[in-house]
Amino acid sequence: MARRRRFLLVIIIFGLICSAGLIFPNPVETAVNDPAINYADVAWLLTASGLVLLMTPGLSFFYGGMVSKKNIISTMLQSFIALGTITVVFITVGFGLCFGTSWHGLIGNPLDFLFFKNVTLSTNKALAPTIPLMLFAVFQMKFAIITPALITGSFAERVKFNAYLVFMILFSVFIYCPLAHWTWHPEGFLHKWGVLDFAGGTVVHMSAGYAALAGAMFLGPRKVFGTANHSEHPANIPYVMLGTGMLWFGWFGFNCGSALGANTTAVLSFVTTVVASAAAMMSWIFFDAARGKKVSAMGACIGAVVGLVAITPAAGFVTVPQALFIGFISAVVSNLAVRAKNRSNLDDTLDVFPCHGVGGIMGMILTGVFAKDVGLYYGHTTTFLYHMLALVIVSVFSFGGSYILYYITDKIVPLRVSEEDEHEGLDFTQHGERYKIKAATGNQ
C-alpha cells in the first residue's frame, strides 16, 4: 500500500512537471523565412538525430546479450528507459544547463531554455548557424540520452531500477550537463582552452566510463562474482552482434552529424569512423589469438565498439591513416585494461570502464596528438598539454562527482537489490517478467 502511495505521488509530480511548461509563452513559428538556414544541413541533421537515437536501443541489445538470461530484460530496459527519462530532463532544464548563457564558462543558465522556451525554428549564430536551433537541441538531446545508459553495464544484475532512475537524473544534471557546457559551449572553459572533442569522447564516453567505475566500486561485486555460477554469461551472443551493428550504424549520426552540416567534415568523419572501428575489431581478435584465445564473436564486437569510442573525439580532426592507428592502439590498450580488470576484484560487469572509459581516454590523448595543424604530431604542444590537463580535470570531476551522486542516491533509494532478488534475477523481481530462450530440443 505504501509503495502505491509513493508512485501515486510520483505520477502527480511528473504530471505537474509535464504541465508546467504550459505557463511559459513559447510560440513556435509555423513558417520561418531565415535566409541562413541550409536545407541540406537540415535534412542531414534530422537523419543524424534519428541515427543517434537508434544507438540507445542498439546499446540495450549489446548489453542485454552479455548478461545472464534472468537479467536480460532488466539490463535492456535500463538503457531503453533513458529515451523517456532524459528526454524530459533535457527539455525542462538540460538544454539550458548545456547551452544557456554561460556562467564563468562552468554552466549554462537553465532559465534561458526552460521547457524549450526560446528554442525556435530560426538559426542561432553561436550554436547552430545553418540549422534551426530546435534541430540542434534535439540532436544534442540524443547524446544526453545515451550517456547514462552506457553506465548501466558496470552495475548490471544488482541495481534497483527505481534507484537507477534517480541516479540517471542526477548524473545528467550534475555531471553530463556541466561537461557538455565546458566542452561544447563557445564560452565553456575547456572550449576556450582549445580542447577538442568532435563528437563526445570526453563528454559522453569518459564521463560514462568514470561513472561506471565509481558505480562498480560503490555497489560492490555480485554475489556470484568469482564463483562457478559466474560462467553463466553471456546469454545471447546474437543480441550482442545485433546491438553492435545498430551501434555502428547509429554512430555515423553520432560522429558525422557533429559536423552540423552536409559538408566535407561530415565525409571525413564518416570514413575515419569506419576505418578506426574496423582496425580495432581486427586488432582485438588478433591480440586475443596471440594470447592463445579463440577468435570470438564477443571479441570482434567489443573491439569494434572500442574503435568507435576512440575515434569519436577525433573523427573530424584526423586523417584516415591516423584513424587506422587510433583504432589499432586503442583496441590493444583496452584489451589490456580488460585483462587487468579481470585479475582484480572490481566487478565492472560488462567492462564499461576498460572499454568506454579507457577508449575515451585514448581518444582524447590521441586527438591532442593528431589534430590537424594543432596537434603534437604537427609540432605544436599547446593543444596536447591542455588535453592532458583536461583529462585530469574531467577524470576527477566525473569519478568523484559520480561517487557522491551514488552516495546521495543510496540515501534516497537503496541502490542494491537483496541477495534473494539477485539470485532470482532482476527481470522477475524488478519487473515481473521473464525472458525465455527456446532450446534446440524444443524445450523451454
Please characterize this protein's 3D structure.
- By secondary structure, the protein is mainly alpha-helical.
- It has a single domain (about 35-415), classed as Ammonium transporter AmtB like domains (Ammonium transporter fold, Orthogonal Bundle).
- It is about 65% helix and about 0% strand.
- The chain has 16 helices and two strands.
- The chain has helices spanning about 1-20, 40-65, 70-80, 80-100, 135-150, 160-185, 190-195, 200-220, 235-255, 265-290, 295-310, 320-340, 350-370, 380-410, 420-425, 425-430, and strands at about 100-105, 105-110.
- A two-stranded antiparallel sheet has the order 1-2.
- A hairpin with a 3-residue loop joins β1 (about 100-105) and β2.
- α4 (about 80-100) packs parallel to α6 (about 160-185), α8 (about 200-220) runs antiparallel to α13 and α11 crosses α12 (about 320-340).
- The radius of gyration is 21 Å and the shape is globular.
- About 55% of the residues are buried.
- Mean pLDDT is about 90; it is low at about 440-444.
Keywords for this structure?
single chain; 444 residues; mainly alpha; Ammonium transporter fold; two-stranded antiparallel ribbon; 1% strand; globular; disordered C terminus
Instruction: Label the structural class.
Output: mainly alpha
- What is the CATH class designation? Mainly Alpha
Number of strands: 2
* CATH topology label: Ammonium transporter fold
Q: Mind telling me the CATH superfamily name?
A: Ammonium transporter AmtB like domains
Order of the strands making up the biggest sheet = 1-2
